[in-house]
Amino acid sequence: MAAIAVVCAVILAIVVVVDSKFMVYNTSGRIVEGKLNVHLVPHSHDDVGWLKTVDQYYVGSNNSIQGACVQNVLDSLIPALLADKNRKFIFVEQAFFQRWWREQSEAVQDIVKQLVKSGQLEFINGGMCMHDEATAHYIDMIDQTTRGHRFVKNEFGVTPRIGWQIDPFGHSAVQAYLLGAEVGFDSLFFARIDYQDRAKRKNEKSLEVVWEGSKSLASTAWIFAGAFPENYEPPPGFYFEVNDDSPIVQDDINLFDYNVQERVDDFVAAALSQANITRTNHIMWTMGTDFKYQYAHTWFRAMDKLIHYVNMDGRVNALYSTPSIYTDAKYATDKTWPIKTEDFFPYADRVNAYWTGYFSSRPALKRYVRMMSGYYLAARQLEFFRGRINSGPNTDSLADALALAQHHDAVSGTEKQHVANDYAKRLSMGYAEAEALVSTSIACLVKSPSSVNCENPSTKFQQCPLLNISYCPASETNLSNGKSLVVVVYNPLGWKREDTIRIPVTNEDITVRDSNGREIDSQLLPLSDAQLGIRYYHVEAYLGLTVRDVPKYWLAFKASSPPLGFSTYTISGFKGAKSKRSSVYRYQDSRRSTFDVGSDKMKISFSADSGKLIHYSNSKNSVEESVEVSYSFYSAFNGTKKDPQASGAYIFRPNGTYPIEPKGQVASTVVRGPLMDEVHQQINSWIYQITRLYKGKDHVEVEYVIGPIPVDDNIGKEVVTKITTTMQTNKTFYTDSSGRDFIKRIRDYRMDWDLQVNQPVAGNYYPINLGIYMHDDKNEVSVLVDRAVGGSSISDGQIELMLHRRLLNDDSRGVGEALNETVCAGGKCMGLTVQGKFYFRIDPLGEGAKWRRSAGQEIYSPFLLAFSEQDGDEWLNSHVPTFSGIDPSYTLPENVALLTLQELEDGKVLLRLAHLYEVGEDKDHSVMASVELKKLFRSKKIGKVTETSLSANQERAEMEKKRLVWKVEGASGGRSQVTRGGPINPAELVVELAPMEIRTILIDFDNSHHVVFDA
Fold first, then answer.
1. Where residue 577 falls among pLDDT bands split at 50, 70, 90?
2. Rama region for 892: left / alpha / beta (φ>0; ψ in -120 to 50; rest)
3. Is the previous residue joined to 235 through a cis bond, with omega within 30 degrees of 0?
4. How far apart are CA 346 and CA 355, in angstroms?
């Protein structure tokens, strides 16, 4: 007490001496050895859309929803930093910063560059947004991060060092090793981990760890990672935005409420409390929260005073800091750290509050994002083949829209409805520009080889983004008057590919010819009433058109296209054409107990009475398995006064653990033909299913139409499908991490702590971007998806996927709106109807990875179709029928995917190659692979190749030199010997890839002008 009295006397004396005159606060605090160092990190967490749209958040409009203006944050920040050279600030979301940067004068830009150079302003994370980690695909995560990182490097010459994923609702292993270590980050910080996990880590002082996100890359991709003690806000009582209710530091002795010592004591108490759960003598305070620093002076004035008086007090040391300074301080202690493997899913912030609902929220938006992602990958390839035109149509708008869509309140489905509409609108606008680019690129590539300098090709191509609702004006043209429909089928994959094309047509007497003019097999399938109903309503809703002409059939034909290239198919109409009409059978009250579809080698069996799939048989791999596909729904918990937690956009909370099965007999309509068989079933009044088997394929495709989900009983519903077998799977299943590695899951179990089960369904749900599988001692069942969904194995031998949600209550996590999506047309609004697909296959144990990886790539990167109507059949004589961007004798290895082929603004080409398999995943493909760049770019002379970080903002070699090597508990020190691809020999130009390795390369070509590749 005597010491405190002395300190009080000193502080009081200083205040009296200055007599309330201008006070110069000593903010020059630095790290002090032997003391507890409190790193004050000023920040503002700025969502690029949530309650307001990204533009509304930037300019500060629509403040009746939320008083937030990022423009104000940045405007007030710069003079606040200039007022004291010791002040610091970190900024994250480049989508906002780029908007602000473009508006600034050259003088202001020069000032900001100096602030960045001095370290007062530091870019953290550095992507366009703070992407989600559950529902964003790893390719999208890479793309949006690259777009932000390259802007920061080009404008400021710096590379972000720190990952700052402070608000996503759980954290993926891919974020740690791929979007962390592989982009050159030295550390990764986040806030949201399970409340049970957090409590245990506080007790063990293990909130900060070394995270091994990949068992394949192991210690070569370790990263230091820290979870905050509670959230990404300051300790209670230290909020200093205008009108915040925390006590300010009142140090004017002439005014009432003087409280310096009280505030210092509060600071020291909070610091010591945090120190008790943190290793070393360094702790971080995140001084800010959502959209703060709109009047930055109030924060910095308070922190100036705290640093000044706390350091005079002397019990702890306070300093302005950044996560980079904090990371370096932690590293300098030379301590060992606990090792963390796998991920931080699922996340619950309290009892009965699992944030696993958003894995499936807004399924239509999730599908739209995934479609545009695959399209963006293909469009950039075609842009490269033609040559980038910065002033003309390009892929930049789609890139920006997709980057925003990866935000943790965008693709996650946790935003307000008007914000979801804004994301979709931006994607549509970006697609329109990219579509124009793709059409002209293909028109250039199909021109005669003698043509040069393709500027304005005469051939016009159309595309059909609404094929999922059976709407494609380009293919529905009348071919009875001597016209032909040319279909260019582009394959964005690095290997030759064969798949079945389905397009709506009006003629039945039609024939299909391939690139050599040979007639090929085709099949006509009737459009169902369910498909036509969706078409009518949604064309009017989306396009404002009333469609009167109705296509009669789906035309199906097999298409084969070379790697990174296209083939051309010609559809012509004339009497007596050989397109095979499907045979149609209906099974209801049939005398037969079962019926089969498929071929002798691969078939599935249905119960004629119930309509349910009952058996799967594949003689090629000797698999026989009882299997059933069913639908059900969980009734949503609405909350009560005593227990208010409801199911909502974020939270999945079923009202009981037993779903309610649809009842009644299901009629089956069977469609058979030379290319495929289909089984159509109206499961109930709002679920329609088509089970499809392609001849020559060894998987089952299930197309579903769900909605509008009825809620007239005032009960929200969460719709799932279940694939049920008799397998004994011992509570174990596997789900992907952001579409990349697979992670082992065990029901009602967590590796890091003893789980207290309070939600046996929601607490066992995991995010799925690629697929989910399970196995017993004989077989394995794999299920792949066409968008981000939530899923689990709630019972042994069973996989379930949540496909749609319609809820009537908000879940009290801030969005303030029920997840009740509707679509309006013709003066009426109905609940959202979702159309989608999932795919499953059964393999002998250990043999399923090949299909999961190869089919997963085909689902992500489907054929890109372009249509052109022509008079007569002269197309093949006057155009290039086939094209491949690579050497005709070459194909990428089956275990390698081409993630990025993009010409940048400066003329360099960005190439990104990925090994698709993990260590030990497949006996044939989990091996070192190699790619020959000379054959990949057959018509271009490579001048220079530079391997870079994943986000292409620094040379890989320099990144590795700077990498911090952390010590972990139980290890002998250093990094384990993991084999990775070797350096690229400039003469041989061969790129090696080890399992799960992604290599990013910048290429300079010798030629001074871009020429379209030879056909």
1. low
2. beta
3. no
4. 7
Cα→Cα distances 399→405, 434, 973, Å: 10, 9, 42
pLDDT tens by residue, 349-405: 999 999 999 999 999 999 999 999 999 999 999 999 988 887 778 999 999 999 999
Task: Yes or no: say if 672 and 582 are a contact pair by the CB < 8 Å rule.
Answer: yes
935: pLDDT strictly greater than 50: yes
Using an 8 Å Cβ cutoff, are 98 and 151 in contact?
A: yes
Q: In degrees, to the nearest 5, what angle opens at C-alpha 701 toward C-alphas 527 and 503? A: 35
Q: What's the DSSP call for residue 282?
A: E
Residue 16 has pLDDT above 60, yes or no: no
Residues 6+ apart with CB under 8 A from 987: none
Of the candidates 283, 257, 289, the residue with the CA atom closest to the CA atom of residue 270: 283
Q: How far apart are CA 623 and CA 857, in angstroms?
A: 24
Assessment of whether the complete model's pTM goes beyond 0.90:
yes
> Which of these, 739, 743, 744, 745, lies nearest to 764 by C-alpha position?
745
H/E stretch holding 571: strand 565-573
Report helix angle 138-156 to 396-405, nearest 10: 120
Query: Of 404, 342, 402, 344, whose CA–CA distance to 368 is shortest?
Result: 402
- Rounded to whole angstroms, the Cα distance separating 715 from 328 reads 53
Amino acid identity, position 495 = W
* Residue keyed to tokens 């859309």: 49
Q: Evaluate whether 836 touches 768 at the Cβ level (below 8 Å).
A: no
Helical axes 363-386 vs 138-156, angle rounded to 10°: 60
> What would the two tokens of residue 865 be?
């179709």
The two three-digit tokens of residue 107, written as one number: 């003088």
Residues 6+ apart with CB under 8 A from 295: 72, 76, 241, 242
Name the region of 664 (left: φ>0; alpha: ψ -120 to 50; beta: rest): left
Query: What is residue 197's three-state secondary structure?
Result: helix
Residue 632 makes CB contacts below 8 A (sequence gap 6+) with 659, 660, 661, 662, 719, 720, 722
Collapsing DSSP to helix, strand or coil, 190 comes out as strand
Which residue in the block uniquely carries the two structure tokens 């009108």?
243
CB 788 within 8 A of CB 359: yes
d(CA 447, CA 575): 31
Query: What does the pLDDT read at residue 319?
Result: 98
Query: Exposed e or buried b for every residue in 28-62, given b needs 16+ CB within 10 A?
Result: ebebeeeebbbbbbbbbbbbbbbbbbbebbbebeb
Residue in the block written with tokens 């046996």 = 760
**What confidence tens digit (pLDDT) does each residue in 597-648 have?**
998 899 999 998 888 899 999 999 999 999 999 999 999 999 999 999 999 9
Distance CA 849, CA 782 (A): 9
Helices (H) and strands (E) in the chain, counts: 19, 48
- Rounded-to-integer distance, Cα 472 and Cα 614, Å: 35
Residue pair 77/115 in contact (Cβ under 8 Å)? The answer is no
Contact (Cβ atoms closer than 8 angstroms) between residue 375 and residue 464 = no
Cis peptide before 346 (omega within 30 of 0): yes
